[in-house]
Design goal:
The longest helix has 13 residues, at 83-95. The protein is built from 3 helices and 11 strands. It folds into 2 domains: 8-40; 42-178 and 185-189, Alpha-Beta Complex (Nucleoside Triphosphate Pyrophosphohydrolase). The protein is α+β, with helices and mostly antiparallel strands. The protein has helices spanning 83-95, 145-150, 156-167; strands at residues 19-23, 26-30, 42-52, 55-61, 70-71, 74-76, 97-110, 115-128, 137-143, 172-174, 188-190.
Length: 198
């Protein structure tokens, strides 16, 4: 469940009152004593498309927002984990299924009062026993593509991700050992290989 957005009135570093200051043509809460700037509220989530025997893994949400919706499994990224670690953990926690990321297939970028980023992975099924996490998941299963379309309600973002996973040949894969300078600084780049769905 997302936390409410609380405005910063005092500096979290030194405790002095914040003022509003224009920085790069935007207004931010700013501390004139220690120079702290509150750049905004951000959250990062991950979702995963997992195919096994021509069926995709879906969960039915047990809580708001979207209670009752069928979605791909996923959740929030912890502060000290990579996005790839987060999606593997979330799928294992929610479903009991062990996976391995193949590629990134989509990114939802939703700025607003809180800037919400959501990265969708295509993952390889490795094994595990299907078991719904009781607190977050009310139902669970692997469904064929036509079965997915009949589920109600199927979250639109999940439907789009499932469709994208069937049409893309690779998506974006991590680059290992690439120096973070110049034109080759991207940590994820288009894949030249085909990703299998199972």
């Amino acid at each position: 469940m997302p936390y409410p957005i609380v405005p910063y009135n005092f500096c979290p570093q030194c405790g002095k009152p914040l003022i509003l200051k224009e920085i790069s043509k935007q207004i931010y809460p700013y501390c004139p004593d220690c120079l702290f700037v509150h750049w905004g509220n951000f959250s990062m989530g991950v979702g995963g498309v997992v195919w096994h025997e021509n069926k995709v893994l879906l969960v039915q949400r047990a809580n708001e927002p979207g209670k009752g919706n069928w979605t791909i499994p996923g959740g929030f990224v912890d502060q000290r984990e990579s996005i790839a670690e987060a999606i593997v953990r979330e799928i294992r926690e929610e479903t009991g299924i062990v996976t391995d990321p193949l590629s990134i297939i989509s990114l939802r970028d939703r700025p607003g009062e809180k800037h919400d980023l959501y990265v969708i992975f295509l993952l390889r099924y490795l094994g595990g026993t299907l078991k719904a996490e009781q607190e977050e998941v009310s139902d669970i299963g692997f469904f064929g593509f036509e079965e997915c379309k009949a589920l109600h309600p199927l979250a639109n973002l999940s439907r789009c991700a499932i469709e994208a996973s069937q049409t893309q040949s690779g998506g974006f894969v991590p680059r290992i050992g690439v120096p973070l300078l110049g034109e080759k600084s991207a940590l994820y780049q288009p894949s030249s290989r085909n990703c299998t769905l199972d």
